[in-house]
Design a protein that fits this description.
The protein has 397 residues and is α/β, with parallel strands linked by helices. The chain is built from 13 helices and 18 strands. Helix 1 crosses helix 8 (188-205) and helix 8 (188-205) crosses helix 9. The longest helix is centred in the first third of the chain and has 19 residues, at 96-114. The structure holds zinc ion.
Amino acid sequence: MEERLLGGVVGRRPGPTLLCVAGIHGNEPAGVIAVRRVLDALENRRADVHGRFVALAGNIAALQQGRRFIDRDLNRAWTSGRILQLRAQGTAGGTVEDCEQFELLHEIERVLDAADGPVYALDLHTTSGPGGVFSAFTDSLPHRDFAEAFPVPMIFGLEELVDGTLLNLLSEHGIVAVTVETGQHDEPAAVDRAVAAIWIALVKAGVLPESLVPEAEKGRALLARDVSHLPRALEMRQKRDLADGDGFVMAPGYTNFDPVVAGEVVAHDNRGAVVAAEAGRLLMPLYQEQGEDGFFLVREFSPFWMRASAVIRQTGLSHLVWLLPGVRRVEGSADEVIIDKRIARFFARQLFHLLGFRQIEDAGDRLVMRRRRFDERRYLERPPQPEPIEPDAPHRA
Ligand SMILES: [Zn+2]
């Protein structure tokens, strides 16, 4: 029987918290095994811990059966509506994942309540296809800074295409969170990479000093070696959604980050061939029965733009975007803009991504984008404080 609380260390001195969530998908046990290894190795360093390290198991029922989920994907329902429902009705719909989510939310809230400093979160996953080693995060300055500590390809914009992830919920409530995918579900190397990621996170969060964690530097070398042939930064370009009975089957043999050309047949469904919309690299091709996404397409972009965007945001110039042609502010909101695509279509989406905005709506000539929370220089110097997970807080739409 798996316990929700996998373990943890409470330091004698106050400080940051690192929350590690492993196995929110039940067929991804690597993170759980990795947590145990790190906890064992931490035994004789407990006295040196600042703040705390807490590790939680995600979907216990699904972990026991080795399935992604039992009734529904536990990593797609961390939305305001669902949380209100959980609060109002306890386990709400009564499915297995309603219970799992209720318990996990409760444990996360205990961690947030107990925190007496910033809270960092590491969300560990693996993929069904080989080669899936990368990070994903909501792109505001402190979150990106945390993600940069892991020397793996950084995927920008996943959160715009996948709703209701735990990562998004935590990030919007002042928790500095990153998702790290550490390889294929059952390969032993996925555990080693997850172990590496936890050590790196402990040091980056400030729970333990680098000098006491030789595993962090070894972990960086391990991760970097496995992805040395891959770009550092890629942006999300396409997602193939699955619907019940659409007959989607991935073409065999694809690996994460395999280059594809525009129009390449990468899968089939009931209507025939499914093609890549543009040239890029394939991400998370679906080679398992359960899942809602067939594949993603990502495209490399220059680390120059990554750095440029951080510099521009730190200057605060990104607060003047409404001076651009075809851009106006949403009434009553300092952080939302409506973009007239007829005027600004050549620069709109990508420019606003660089400036730290995420897409809210794309309809006709209208593109609505919102500045991510905590995307300010001061949060680089001092990370945000966690906020209670209140779905109807005023900052939320
Ligand atoms: Zn997963």
